[in-house]
Amino acid sequence: MSSTRPTGEIYRIDWLPGTDLLHGTCHCGREHTAQDPVEMWEWMLAHPQGRRAAREHR
């Protein structure tokens, strides 16, 4: 039997009224804006790997 425990990580996606844009905020504080909901969720779920990749490209 497996149990899932809360991680305390909060992801937030808001629709920007008057636009076709979604604004996402990751639990780490990084933000991203996209029109495509799938793109937004892929960005969210890429963490922490997405954060590491972004730092490597700087």
Q: Tags for this entry?
A:
58 residues; alpha+beta; three-stranded antiparallel sheet; 3 strands; elongated; disordered C terminus
Describe the structure.
The chain has two helices and three strands; from the N terminus they run E-E-E-H-H. It has 58 residues and is of the alpha+beta class. The chain has a three-stranded antiparallel beta sheet, with helices on one face.
Mean pLDDT over the full residue set = 78
Proportion of beta-strand residues: 15-25%
Structure annotation, total helices: 2
End-to-end separation:
43 Å
Oligomer: single chain
**Helix coverage percent of residues?**
25-40%
Widest sheet: strand ordering: 1-2-3
- Radius of gyration in whole Å, from Cα? 13 Å
Number of strands: 3
Shape: elongated
Query: Ranges with pLDDT <50 over ≥5 residues?
Result: 50-58
Major sheet, described briefly?
A: 3 strands, antiparallel
User: How does the helix and strand content classify structurally?
Assistant: alpha+beta
List SSEs in N-to-C order. Answer: EEEHH
